[in-house]
Amino acid sequence: MIGNALLLALRELRRNVMRSFLTMLGIIIGVAAVIVLVTLGGGATKQVTEQISSLGSNLMMVTPGKRMGPGRESGGAPFKLADAEAIAREVPSVAAVAPAASAASTVIYANENWSSTVTGSTVEYFTVSNRRIKEGRAFTEAETRAGVAVCVIGETIRGKLFGGQDPIGSKVRLGKLACEVIGLLESKGQSTMGTDQDDLLVVPLRTSRVRKTSASSKFLSKRVSPPTGSRRTFRA
User: Fold this and answer.
1) Residue range 106-128, pLDDT digits in tens
2) Residues 27 and 132 in one domain
3) With contact defined as beta carbons under 8 Å apart, do 181 and 169 qualify?
4) Do residues 195 and 119 share a domain?
């Protein structure tokens, strides 16, 4: 019986070759389209997840000013260091806080220069922003308190100013300030918004204040999952 059914099917295929071919082609195209869409969707989901993880999935950023509507913000006084210290001291759900002030600046080394973002912060900045040191080291608490002119740079600045040279120990200029490069950050690539996450230079917060640049102040904090029955915890 099965043999007769197969013979009948083959006979019908021979009688309607074009119709059979078009049917097979439609099935192949439909299956291929579904596979491509599923693959692209999975790849996009994975990329977004990796980008969020690289920033820190529990990262919270607080900036001064209140949004009044789409694309509009009212002016707000910059945060003070005492504000960050008060949050870390008085809010139990916050494990740590990293105050940060950022401003655009031209970084100069020898005959090369590059316009980048200079961020002044504390040692906690590297933990909060999920930044790892590839070469050299991060600045210390003592260097932060003293406002020592040291800095950690991203991979983009290393490529633009130093090429294939080792940047550790070299001095770059930020306006009138000479800053020693003590560390190189691991590359993160572009963010989901298309910005270059490696185009930055980090200095101790007190050092950035000495430069007296007009920078936007903010707090960075990380929210961590609390144990059962406890309050939610933040880490910056």
Assistant:
1) 999 989 999 998 999 999 888 88
2) no
3) yes
4) yes
